[in-house]
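Q: Here's a chain of 110 amino acids. Please give me its 3D structure as tokens.
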Amino acid sequence: MAPHAPQPQTPQWWVLPPVNIPGEKPGSALVKRPMGDWFLDGLNRLGLAYWVEITTTAPNCTYFFGPFVTQPAAQCHWPSFVDDLMHEGAEGISVEIRRVRPRQLTISHD
């Protein structure tokens, strides 16, 4: 009989206070992060975390999704971000994964 594989632990979550993003309804953006994610926060502060940067031509915007500890982790997640944007009607989508420290998560170029 094969030994039972250990069950992954469900992370405990905490929600940061609302973030005001220019052009968005004040207090509408909540950031939900697992507790104890201090390593990722440190990488992000140093500009060493990976972010998925998606640009679209219609609307003419740049979106940032992340942060991620590794480039492969970001690569695993970008298809779902693109899928969400496509369902919202975005066109001319291009994706880049890079180390960056975005000041805004959505930048409108119109």
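Q: Can you summarize the key feature?
A: Helices lie at 38-45, 71-87.
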